UniProtKB/TrEMBL annotation:
SUPFAM superfamilies: FAD/NAD(P)-binding domain (SSF51905), FAD/NAD-linked reductases, dimerisation (C-terminal) domain (SSF55424)
SMART domains: AIF_C
Species the sequence originates in: Corynebacterium hylobatis
Keyword Oxidoreductase among UniProt keywords: yes
Gene Ontology MF term list: FAD binding; NAD(P)H oxidase H2O2-forming activity
Ranges of residues in domain FAD/NAD(P)-binding: 15-308
Keywords: FAD, Flavoprotein, Oxidoreductase
Keyword match Flavoprotein: yes
GO biological process terms, semicolon-separated: mitochondrial respiratory chain complex assembly; programmed cell death
Transmembrane intervals: none
InterPro entries: FAD-oxidoreductase/Apoptosis (IPR050446), FAD/NAD-bd_sf (IPR036188), FAD/NAD-binding_dom (IPR023753), FAD/NAD-linked_Rdtase_dimer_sf (IPR016156)
Gene Ontology CC annotation, any one: cytoplasm
Pfam families linked: Pyr_redox_2 (PF07992)
Name of this protein: NAD(P)/FAD-dependent oxidoreductase
């Protein structure tokens, strides 16, 4: 895939369906619309300069697989759906009454049905405007970061969560000298108990990644080298800094249009319809009623895929309900996991390991001993069973004392 260029298309006055956003949810929605209503016109407007990509590849395959290129994660949305793509273009206004959107270059376009799939943006803090400081989120960020990293490049990652853990593994795999700096005691401690974080600490260090807890960033200065200073006065010198501080949902367009918001997202019903007629929301920004966990908002790939498909089908005339508890997953060097629900260590965690202590099933229980999340550590093909356990626990059909043996670790 060559570097994209911004294309100013000549648009129709109106489309049957407009999708605002250029990620996986947009791709899935366009595919569903095409399947249900082959003759419908579809326009995808995205402020990103690439068409929809399989986003997990940006922090996984492109770093971990030899010779992997951006083409390998391109979803080929236009070719597979016939949708018109308007890239590198921001939608600045949404008029629910007039059924129109307005772009930054002044184009106004009408719609029959609209999907907001605007995703989330990397959280920013006050940092110098320097190309060596990267907030990692999209393909342009990948191109830029990859161009600066080679064998021995000193890369400091700030953050101890999901994206920081994956980027540390990926950058180490291509030979960078990686250090990770985070305020907690151990990386991913908000998700994993000591049994796993202790293992990960040893694993990352064995791969040459330096993990530095109790690091509270005070300042980041850009001179000949980048210098990070902690609140305790410690300094870290780096060639490149990657900031992995989480993401914020892109809900400004919905908010300004008067759509109902809740839990930091756009509130939707069982068909992913918003409070405004003919407007739907999917992916990171959708606040919905999970059939097991209740009202929540989820920023993971499975959510984007399934909700995009559901919204597209309903928009095209095939009413479909979103009744789904999404999973998420990651690979960390030679280990991997799949998980469902609230895998947070502020819940009580019950651990079940195999005899070799290489695989585990972890249950996350609330104060009422109801299972709110399941983590499958090096345990595969068990997500459906994990959902069954959570549903049975919620309904009072499975006691906490009966969890042992429900899922076999390492299965």
């Amino acid at each position: 895939m060559s570097n994209p260029i911004e294309v100013k298309a000549t648009l129709q006055p109106a489309y049957d369906h407009i999708i605002v956003g250029g990620g996986v949810a947009a791709d899935k929605a366009a595919r569903a619309i095409r399947e249900v209503a082959p003759d419908a016109s579809v326009l995808i407007i995205s402020d990103i300069s690439d068409g929809p990509l399989y986003r997990p590849g940006l922090s996984k395959d492109l770093w971990l697989k030899p010779n992997a290129e951006l083409d390998s994660i391109d979803l080929a949305t236009k070719e597979n759906t016939g949708a018109e793509l308007l890239l590198g273009t921001r939608v600045t206004a949404l008029d629910p009454k007039g059924h129109t959107v307005t772009t930054a270059d002044g184009q106004q376009v009408g719609y029959g049905k609209l999907l907001l799939a605007t995703g989330a943006s990397a959280r920013h803090i006050g940092t110098p405007d320097d190309e060596r400081i990267v907030y990692y989120r999209n393909a342009d960020d990948y191109r830029h970061l990859r161009s600066m990293v080679s064998e021995g490049t000193r890369v400091a990652i700030v953050g101890g969560g999901y994206i920081a853990s994956e980027m540390a593994a990926g950058l180490a795999a291509v030979g960078a000298d990686v250090s990770v700096h985070f305020p907690g005691k151990r990386i991913l401690e908000q998700m994993f108990p000591d049994s796993i974080t202790g293992h990960l600490s040893k694993l990352y260090e064995s791969k040459g990644v330096s993990l530095n807890g109790d690091f509270f960033l005070d300042s980041l200065s850009a001179g000949e080298k980048l210098v990070l200073k902690s609140t305790s006065g410690d300094e870290v010198v780096a060639d490149v800094v990657v900031l992995g501080l989480g993401a914020a949902p892109n809900i400004q367009l919905a908010e300004e249009a008067g759509l109902t918001l809740e839990m930091g997202g756009v509130l939707v019903d069982e068909t992913l319809a918003t409070s405004a007629p003919d407007i739907y929301a999917a992916g990171d920004i959708a606040t919905y009623d999970d059939p097991i966990l209740g009202r929540r908002r989820v920023e993971h790939m499975a959510m984007a895929e399934r909700s995009g498909d559901t919204a597209g089908r309903t928009m095209a005339g095939e009413r479909t309900e979103y009744r789904y508890t999404p999973l998420f997953w990651s690979d960390l060097f030679d280990d991997g996991y799949e998980a469902v629900g609230e895998t947070r260590t502020n819940h009580r965690v019950e651990e079940h390991w195999n005899d070799e202590h290489t695989a585990a099933v972890l249950y996350y229980l609330d104060d009422n001993d109801v299972v709110r999340g399941v983590l499958l550590w090096n345990t595969w093909d068990s997500v459906p069973k994990a959902r069954e356990v959570m549903a049975a626990s919620k309904e009072g059909k499975l006691a906490a004392s009966e969890l042992a043996g429900q899922i076999t670790p390492g299965g």
